[in-house]
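Quick one before lunch.
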Amino acid sequence: MNLIRIRPATMDDIDMVIAINIECLPEHYPFNFWIEHLKKWGDIFYVAEVDNEIVGYVLSRIEEGQSHFKGSYIKMGHIVSVAVKGKFRRKGIATYMLLTLLNSLKTVYGAEEAFLEVRVSNEPAVKLYEKLGFTIVKKLTKYYLDGEDALLMAKAL
Ligand code: ACO
Ligand code: ZN
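Model of the acetyl coenzyme *A complex:
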């Protein structure tokens, strides 16, 4: 495969990012959701490009809240949505995007942790997050609209 490039998303990428989200995940968001994230947290919203084609994205935001590992109130990165187009999977692209993101969460925003929710049935994603050092914090019962439970996973940065 040719060169994979990870770079911050721009306005021109949004239509493609939304198309990948619709193709890959059951959780969709209104157009404005994507635009607001781009405006507010454009430096922690990445796309992956292969030969000038957008093949994946990761969207995140900064939140403040109770640490998942200690008693204190901290700044954390919330990884809201990540996906890679089917034909480009298992080539390390999600890993590359998430490592880039985790580094920015820490160095640009001073986030002390990253966290996310994932469907209990989503073995590829759970494996990916475990490989990156995330651990399961708790199960969120009936978190999704269709009634499926989520795993809350977090990692200290
Ligand atoms: N089965 C088992 N383990 C897997 C699989 C799989 N199908 N896919 C990835 N992994 C694990 C493996 O440990 C893999 O390492 P290896 O290939 O050396 O064995 C590791 O994750 C890294 O895989 P990557 O190649 O970096 O991941 P990829 O680019 O394929 O993207 C992703 C993974 C994002 C989960 C992709 O499968 C996808 O887009 N799925 C549909 C959308 C989705 O489920 N997104 C996550 C929802 S949760 C959220 O958004 C917060
Ligand atoms: Zn979330």
